[in-house]
Amino acid sequence: MKKIPFPVIQRLSYVFEIINKLEENGIGKISSSELGGYLGQTAHTIRKDIHFLGIAGTPGTKYEIADLRRLLIDHLGFGEPKRCCIVGLGRLGEALLEQLLAIPQDAFAVVAGFDSNINRLETIRTSIELFPAYRIEKTVRKLQIELALIAVLPQQAQEAADRCCDGGVRGILNFTPAVIKPKRKGVFVRAVDVSGELRILAALAYTSTANE
Amino acid sequence: MKKIPFPVIQRLSYVFEIINKLEENGIGKISSSELGGYLGQTAHTIRKDIHFLGIAGTPGTKYEIADLRRLLIDHLGFGEPKRCCIVGLGRLGEALLEQLLAIPQDAFAVVAGFDSNINRLETIRTSIELFPAYRIEKTVRKLQIELALIAVLPQQAQEAADRCCDGGVRGILNFTPAVIKPKRKGVFVRAVDVSGELRILAALAYTSTANE
């Protein structure tokens, strides 16, 4: 299979979300320029991205959403939701858990939560299974968990990630301000950098004013 | 002043964070390839980005960090921290507030929090001022708040953003799964899309396995 570059994977993941929503609303076809509108990209970029799935789109004709969906499932593996865990169930972790469970997800399913504080585990009411942190490695392996969202204290982030790697996760979403380095090759790490996002917004607001 | 394209602003904002940390550690110079390493970009891209600040870098020579810092402050407005508020102080909002106040910030300062539940405001212990949600517009105007982090329930997100816009914010960071459309021109909105991030990780893990 032809290797799909990272920015294309990123955009196609978003396309998957969009067409799922359109399909729910009974829409059957979509053009590259309409998709481009949703993503803030040109129709040309979208056609090039979809070409990686094996459809050579031509300007002006629409894609069948059912075809697109099937191809995205084939190429990006969205057929079977990846199992996901949340490590750290303080306020942040619990809020994220609740947010993720409240909406139907199309690419992953949160199946387990971990916290080092056992009393904490007993006070949380949720539909998923909760475990003490020392059981991360075994549980990740047993439940075949592939994704981990890390919401522990910054000073515990690397250790939490290491345990997840030991258990076999393939992707880590880092919600702490600490930098996480994957312990194994082939583990992808992405970070939600709240300060970084606000810094970018600060710069955008300033530069647009300076240019007015 | 020459208009700086959005991806350049995004990268330069990150450069600002990096050089601040290097400066704290007593480092005085950095090359474009070292900066590129931090950002996952080529040295060439970094040199082109920094060229927007008026320095024509040449391969192999290092930038003075103090110069870079001053130019980033001039061009991206990082000299005076932008005032920021958090709207919605449920578990998520309170956790984000705590996280942002725990680390010294270089581009913004959280100065106010809002929640529609007045009892909630009384139970939160924090160093910043808290207000009921109906006072968003007046308070944002009075305190000259330019950035807002929205962490309310999805169904309240647009209204919360509208009130912030009415008060005069210039940038909104949306932490809800709802889509927020800015009420006024010139207001930038960025979203932290937790499901989207996990979807991308799922696709990365799958495609790298499929290519092995």
List keywords for this structure.
homodimer; about 210 residues; alpha/beta; Arc Repressor Mutant, subunit A; Rossmann fold; six-stranded parallel beta sheet; two-stranded antiparallel sheet; about 15% strand; globular
Describe the protein:
2 copies of one chain form a homodimer. Chain A is α/β, with parallel strands linked by helices. Chain A has 2 domains: 70 residues, Arc Repressor Mutant, subunit A (Orthogonal Bundle); 114 residues, NAD(P)-binding Rossmann-like Domain (Rossmann fold, 3-Layer(aba) Sandwich). The first copy, chain A, contains 9 helices and 8 strands. Chain A has a 6-stranded parallel sheet, with helices on both faces. Chain A has a two-stranded antiparallel ribbon with strand order 1-2. Chain A starts with 5 loop residues before the first helix and ends with a helix. At the A-B interface, helix 1, helix 5, strand 7 and helix 9 of A face helix 1, helix 5, strand 7 and helix 9 of B.
Number of domains of chain A: 2
What structural class do you assign from the helix and strand content of chain A?
alpha/beta
> Major beta sheet of chain A, specifics?
6 strands, parallel
Kindly state the mean pLDDT of chain A as a whole number? 93
The strand line-up of the biggest sheet of chain A is 5-4-3-6-7-8
CATH topology of the largest domain in chain A: Rossmann fold
Oligomer: homodimer
Most residues in contact, chain pair and counts? A-B, 62 and 63 residues
What is the CATH superfamily label of the largest domain in chain A? NAD(P)-binding Rossmann-like Domain
Low-confidence stretches of chain A: none
Strand content of chain A: 15-25%
Helix content of chain A: 40-55%
Order of helices and strands of chain A: HEHHEHEHEHEHEHEEH
**What is the name of the CATH class of the largest domain in chain A?**
Alpha Beta
Number of DSSP helices of chain A? Answer: 9
Radius of gyration of chain A: 20 Å
Number of strands of chain A: 8
